[in-house]
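Weekly structure sync - notes
Attendees: PM, LS, DV (DV joined late)
Agenda: review two folding runs queued last week.

Item 1: First target. Sequence and structure tokens pasted below for the record.
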Amino acid sequence: MSNINSTAASTNPYLISYSGSDIIGSDTTLSSSVTSSSTNSSSSSSTSSSGSYSQSLVSSMSGFDVSSMVSEMMTSDYTKLNQLLATQQKTQWTQDRYRSEITNLNSFSSSYFDPTSSDYALSANSFLAYIATPTDATSVTSTALNTATPGNYSIYGTKATAASITNTPAASGLTNSALFSTLNGGQTSGTIALTVNGKNVNYNYTSASTIGDVMNGLSNASGVKFSYSELTNTFSVNSSSTGSSSSLTVAAASGSDSATSSFLTNAYGSATPTATAGTDGTFYIKEPGQSSYTKVNESSNNFTIDGVNYNVASDISASSPVTINVASNISGVVSKIQGIVDAYNNLTTGINSTLSEKTDYNYKPLTYAQESKMTSAQITAWNTKVQQGDLSGDDELTNLQSDMRAAFYNIVSGTGLTMADLGLSTSNDETQGAKLTLDVSKLTATLQKNPSAVINTLTQTSTTYPTQTQANLTSAQYQTKYNEEGIFQRLNDIVDKYASTLHDQPNGARGLLVEKAGLASDATDQSTLGKTLKQQTDAVTNFKTQITNDKTMYTTKYTALQTALSQLSSQQSYLSSMLSSSSSN
């Protein structure tokens, strides 16, 4: 956001006249030429009484001082250099201001559009209008979605099981840290080659491999769970899914060695162990207003019915059913929406401040000579004023503000709600930009009436183009996507459009502001302003070379002229002396 202090005095508090020797900023590359000019002048004066034809004496005789003349001729060069450096500095500041806006946009995105953020705002589950609280959370946990009915839910039953193979080995006292060779007939290295659910699974073991190592390795390679329990002295293999449709087959692969067969026999009782089929869970649920339980069969222990998600961890006795209380969390949802609106207002207020700044043309980038006469605080205050208005009325930022404002105003398809229904409005004062106000009472009332519609208005994804980005859609396709998206989804698209750091825009481009200003982390700045700065830097470098050449040229010419005039002066003195002698005779 803008860091310009718009309250600074409108008059020029540090007025210092420019001189031909001024160099912008801290660039002192050529300042020595100015110093040397004045030094040479001083040294010439100091030797004028020696009686010899020193430069100062000859200059006085010829009517001019070489150093002074060169300095005078170089004034226009130094003035132009100052102008080049000032232009370069302004471009750098403009780039920095854009990058500041990019950082703020991406910070907002990281807070609310990153799935790993605790404030993630692009999922309906991030705005749950109800809280589900079970009486026994060790047996079942629950989440109430926005379509749930508040009240008490009860559940008991037998959980679904996975297809499995279990066996207690003949050996006792095994541990997961024991060497694997104790299970495979003493083989210290080799390959366990299995067929698991028709898939070839190989695991290479060494003399240092433990039982736990092999169990984990086979699990990672096969997609099912191999394990050994030290507590029950039991080897197990469990399929990754539960229910009657889950299956499991484990056998030594064709061509496998004897160590593989020994491992299966010692751990699982057979080289071709038989699995126990998985079973569906049988649950009995009673919802608010019901007097009896309804039986349901589920292949998974994690399922959702009538807006309530159940995650069953263990069998629940009919004599001790778990009660789940679903209560309103409207205040929590309102609080979260208010937080997002506040963060959005901070973002858009900063952008609007940048757009509405007024340029004070009394302030120009400081030269080195000017900075040398000011304190650090004065320099900072001055530079702040110089930067003020750099992005005033900027087209990209203006379009960004317009896009963000429209994201709230345009109707979201299928929800039946408007921005006003959510208690949201923008100020009629154009100086407020896209800043929002939230009527908490109105939002609360709408949430109580239809929480699902409110959350969908904010978070729903496009059904036609759920995963495609704007960069991969035509204008008509994106308009369809836009109309179907919730407000926060639209804001996410807008941030990507302007501040994406990935090359996912058309032709591999990044966000519009990033393309314009680049990023500080870019190894090579190929942005529009980056290229401009490169050209300006080259222009400064080339002009510094020209200044050096000009100084040499002027010094050579005026020295030659001075020499000629000195000789003429000497001849004139000689002739005068001769004439004087002749007349006296």
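Item 2: Second target, run right after the first with the same settings.
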Amino acid sequence: MKLKDLFFGVVLLCNALLGYTSSVAQEKETLTVNHNEIKRTIRMGKPYVAQYYFFKDSVYQISVEQQGIDVSLTLKDSNGKSLAEKDSPNGRFGFEKLVYSPDSSAYYTLCVTPLDEKENAKVGSVRLHTSNIPDTLTRFTKEALEADFTMLRDAYLETRLGLWYHTFAEFDSLYRAQRAMIVDGMTALDFYKVVAPFTAQTREGHASIRLSDETNNYFRQYGTYLPLLVKISNGKLYILESSDSTWKGNEITAINGRSTKTILQMMFDIEPADGYNVTSKARWVEDLFSSYLLRLYGLCDTYTIEIKKTEPETAVSVKIAAVSSKVYSKMRNAFRKANPQLFFTQSLQIDLDSLSSCARLTINDFGANRYAKGMVGFKNTMDSVFRSINNLGINNLIIDLRKNEGGTQGMEDILMSYLIDKRYKKYQYVEVPSDRFSFTAMTDYIGEDSLLQAKISREFFRDVDGRFVNRPGTYEGLSPSPWRFSGRIFILIGGLTFSGGSEFAALAKNHTSAVFVGEETGGGYYGNSSGYFLNFTLPHSGLSGRIPLIKFVVNTSNKGVPFGRGLIPDYEIIPTIGDYLKDDDPVLRQVERLISNAQN
């Protein structure tokens, strides 16, 4: 072969390769923000790719309506790095919505990818629209909002939500009082302020009512946040973090002329909790205090704060400029990173000390997905831990549940099995209101009523009295473990001890000799509604939320706790703001004193 022929052969081969590469490369469509809605056919194995130019700190909403095919959304930067993803559990129909605010002005790529699942369609279509966030909120007619509120009330009654703590007449009276506040021209935010106190009156901590997507996006773009992080202690509000270090640790007595007592009560009034509990409300509100403030009182460029200083004891008034949602979020994230002891980064921490004959288990999460191999993995870990405790001859066990807000049903039973000497009856009863509901069209089970019925029927049946109760063999405790611990047990509890965490505490109160230290659990002592959920969106206002379906009533022989309260500790210890700032733990110190006294 001549050199010239070889050269042309290489050129042809390169051209062929280049042509092949371009044929399989993803085609990218350049679109402008606020474009008209477009419809595109999409096929399995071939994502649809669009490109946008986004400006720094602007908030953009990407809305993709799935029409017969289940897709996920991924937003990438110019280097192909994934910045945000969205895949809602809504099947082949409905919307996937992704909201993003870039840190720099540049081109960004959106990938709409069909999910590679057997039940997914091979071909379908999507409708796409990307927009900025409007600077005004939609206003609704009185009739539309009344219709939404009535639908919510009827859904609550159909699922009996709120009827454990109220008679029908009482609950209906609460509904009518709030409904009378609806007027023409309200925004979804105005409507939220009417509905949220009604939802809170269900007195079910697993129930929720949330702002509409429109309102959330509005706050992300235009929200004005108080740049402080706070702590609530004994009903008072203290500064935990601020840009001015001299303010830290001081009490806030008023904001914009309103007393903090009034502000906190209004916040508590819109936050559901189990029964009459307030410790969970305090923990949840303090974590997002500035968001609650914005939600209740609206935009404010400058906040006037009345501070009660301790050294020297003086009252001062200071003005603080509000910050954007992005700045506030970065402030919270930086504080969490710098102060991991106030939060939790690990689901389980184990400390075995044979010298002091003390074991400490900090269990921050009962979610099976937080552990390798799920519930089996958690049990294997507990087997190993309690085997070691037994082999080391440890006599004191501290179980710290102060950040445990629950997780997977049954995880609490695994832990209980190491503390009991005989099997126990876990629940007085477990029931669901029905196996079918009339309002699924506004829930995540739209068009899938049969799936919901099948899910419920696996664990529940209709008894002779007409109630839907759990099938024999379900929701039962476990037998004692061969590695049972027989020494002294101390359990640390607090306002974030909720759901499965609180349920474990209630079981331990009734079936062990454990001593409880801390503050009242955030979860109900006698039970709660949780388990299965119906996630809903009201059709006019767009307010969303969830309704828990399963009523769990714990079998309690110890009736010393007032109805509607969490487990009240044997030793109530409420950390002060000084304890938080010094990273001191008075609850743990109290337990150490109890152990020391018992050993001397």
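Discussion on item 2: The mean pLDDT is 93.
Action: LS to circulate a short write-up before next sync.
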